[in-house]
Amino acid sequence: MSLYQDVTRKPWNTVGLPDGIDPKPTFNVSNEKLALVVFVIVASVLFSLLCVSYFIRMWFGGGDWLPIALPSMLWVNTGALVAASVAMQVAVVSSRKQGHGDKSKSPWFLVGGVLTLGFIIGQFTVWQQLTSQGYILQSNPANSFFYVLTGVHILHLVGGLWVWSRALLRQVRKDASHDISKSIELCAWYWHFLLIVWFALFYLVATN
Amino acid sequence: MAIAVVLVLLVVGSIIFHLVSPWWFTDIASHWANIDFTVNLTFWVTGFVFIAVNLFLAYSVYRYRQSKDTPDNKAVYEPENARLETGLTILTALGVAAMLAPGLFVWAQFVTVPEDATEFEAFGSQWQWAFRYPGDDGVMGTADISHISETNPWGINPADPAGQDDLVVKAPYMALPVDQPVKALLRSRDVLHNYTVPQFRAKMDMVPGMVSYMWIEPTRTGVFDVLCEQYCGLGHHIMRAQIEVMEPADYEQWLDQQMTFAETQSLPEGSVSAGRQAYATCASCHGQNGEGNQAMNAPKLAGLQDWYIARQLRYYSEGVRGANPDDSAGQMMAPMAAMVNSEEARLNVAAYIESLPDEPAPATVEGDAERGMRIYSANCAACHGAEAQGSWSTDAPALAGMSDWYLARQLNNYRDGIRGGEDGDHYGYQMTSMVKAMRTEAQQNDVIAYINTLR
Amino acid sequence: MAYVPLADQDDAHALHDPDSFITKYVWSQDHKVIAIQYGGIAIFVGLIALGLSILMRLQLGFPDTISWIDPAFYYQAVTMHGMIMVVYLLTALFLGGFGNYLIPLMCGTRDMVFPFLNMLSVWVYLLSVLILLASFFVPGGPTGAGWTLYAPQSITPGTPGSGYGILLMLVSLGVFIIAFTMGGLNYVTTILQARTRGLTLMRLPLSIWGIFTATVLGLFAFPALLVSAIMLTFDLMLGTSFFVPSMIHMGETLEHDGGSPILFQHLFWFFGHPEVYIVALPAFGLVSDVLSTHARKNIFGYRMMVWAIIAIGGLSFLVWAHHMYVSGMNPYFGFFFATTTLIIAVPTALKVYNWVLTLWQGNIRLNTPMLFAIGFIFTFVHGGLTGLFLGNVIIDVPLADTYFVVAHFHMVMGVSPVLVLYAALYHWYPKMTGKMFNETLGKIHFWCTFLGTYAIYLPMHYLGFLGVPRRYYEMGNTDFIPASAQALNANITIAAIFVAIAQLLFFINIFWSLKSGKPSGGNPWGATTLEWQTPDTPPKHGNWGEELPAVYRWAYDYSVPGAEKDFIPQNEPGEEYEKTFHHKGGES
Question: Which residue stretches does the UniProt record annotate as biased composition, category Basic and acidic residues (chain C) (predicted)?
Answer without folding.
Answer: 576-588
